[in-house]
Amino acid sequence: MNSKLHHNIKQKNELQNLSNKKWKINQAIAFNAKDDFSDLPNYEVVYKILKIVPEGDNMELQLSTAVKKAYPADTKVRMHTPACGSYVYTTIVGSKVPKIWKAYSNSAVLGKPGQMGWKFFRPGTAFVKIIILPNYAKKKDEKIAFTALTLKVAE
């Protein structure tokens, strides 16, 4: 859920009068957020929210660093979470693939608010992109083959 800035800000580390009451400590705030998530990936982010002070129907957020860019009133903002980095690794992470074939299988589900970890897509996830990083160590002589890859969308 997006909120709007109620007044112009520049190089401040406090944002006031934000209407969304779902802000959380240690999360990030993204600027110029779009309701349809077309701003993702959004790199206009300040990490992290240090303090939240209710002000009637609104919230005041204290950030760990000052906002580096000027934003006009009515700029849409959204809470982002830095948890688990950019990717959700669900099956094999940082392990060597054995010489003898082994089948790998796993899944991830949409997390509920406050539920984070390697097996959960972040709450509010709008889309996912499946990736495989087969030669993460960048070895010049590394060879790997994939057969019978499947992707199933759970009902």
Mean pLDDT: 76
Distance between the termini: 25 Å
Tally of separate domains: 2
* Percent of residues in helices: under 10%
Shape: elongated
β-strand percent reads: 15-25%
Taking pLDDT < 50 over at least 5 consecutive residues as the criterion, the unreliable ranges are: none
Enumerate the strands of the largest sheet in spatial order, edge to edge or round the barrel.
1-7-3-4
Your description of this structure?
With 155 residues, the protein is an all-beta fold. The chain has 2 domains: 3-80; 83-155, no CATH class. It has strands at 3-4, 14-18, 28-31, 45-47, 49-55, 58-63, 76-80, 109-110, 120-121. A 4-stranded antiparallel sheet has the order 1-7-3-4, with no helix packed on it. The protein has a 3-stranded antiparallel sheet with strand order 2-6-5, with no helix packed on it. It is elongated. The two termini are 25 Å apart.
Main attributes?
mainly beta; 4-stranded antiparallel beta sheet; 2 domains; 9 strands; 155 residues; elongated; single chain
Please provide a brief summary of the model.
The chain is mainly beta and 155 residues long. It has strands at 3-4, 14-18, 28-31, 45-47, 49-55, 58-63, 76-80, 109-110, 120-121.
Produce the secondary structure layout.
Layout: E1 3-4, E2 14-18, E3 28-31, E4 45-47, E5 49-55, E6 58-63, E7 76-80, E8 109-110, E9 120-121
Parallel strand pairs: 8-9
Antiparallel strand pairs: 1-7, 2-6, 3-4, 3-7, 5-6
